[in-house]
Amino acid sequence: MRTLSSVAVFVLLCVIASPALSVTRYITDDGMGDYPTIQAAINASSSGDTIILADGTFSGAGNWDLDFGGRNIVVKSENGSLLCVIDCLDGASGDHRGFHFHSGEDSTAVVDGITIADGYSSTAHGGGILIENGSAPTIKRCHIQDCRAVYTSGATGYGAGIAILNCSPRIIDNNIDSNSGTDGAGIAVLGGSPFIAGNDLYSNSASNAAGGILANDATPVIVNNWFDSNSGGGLVLQNYSVASNDAVVHNNLF
Predict the structure, then answer these.
(1) Are 105 and 74 in contact (CB under 8 A)?
(2) Distance between start and end Cα atoms, the chain
(3) Per residue in 139-157, pLDDT tens?
(4) Which end of the chain has less Cβ packing within 10 Å, N or C?
(5) Sequence-distant (≥ 6) Cβ neighbours of residue 185 within 8 angstroms
(6) What is the pTM of this model?
(7) Are strands 148-149 and 162-165 parallel, antiparallel or unpaired?
(8) Rounded CA gap, 117 and 89, in Å?
(9) What whole-number distance in Å separates Cα of residue 171 and Cα of residue 103?
(10) CA-CA distances (angstroms) from residue 223 to 90, 162, 250?
(11) What angle do CA 48, 26, 146 make, to 5 degrees?
């Protein structure tokens, strides 16, 4: 009876043990890329994959309210945020935001170099991006602008730009400007320990507190950020006790 040689067995075991190769998908705003929408590409992806967005303006169903669904993938622009925009239309088509992370994604889930504009939420936090339920993605080199978070019932609208609810994402090297809400118009941190570094936060407007960043009952690391012309204050820490919390605020320019 024939048997496999030791070399053949070794090669077979290596093939079986090898992880699946990562896939890169290319998406265009006219729907003529590898998939018709960004969400369709996300749904076809597995952790480790990359989705590249061509220059242009993405809008409409499948190109906003984007949900990684627990996949640790990268969604990035081809040529930077100035040329790649997700336009949420500021409520003209109902409540829509750029991204919603809520399925436990980790720091290898990345949004890189995309403009998120005119996000709007009237019933929940996070006009541009909402991060909750233990997710911890990386948001970097993005431009988040002209987003709003306002409860129509009169309750507080937190985090017009980015809302972080008991999570620890990495928010790095973004421009966050001209967003408006009740509290934490640029970034609202409601619990958790996010790393917020190297961001420019300017011209954000909070009707109550913190046009720039609001951290409530949280332990963020806030370093090397630039705050300018934020209505309602640049940075506000609430329910913060030196004895029980370990927030780090260092080397920021106000």
Answers:
(1) no
(2) 79
(3) 999 999 999 998 766 567 8
(4) N
(5) 149, 159, 160, 161, 179, 204, 205, 206, 210, 211, 212, 230, 231, 232
(6) 0.90
(7) unpaired
(8) 8
(9) 18
(10) 30, 17, 5
(11) 90
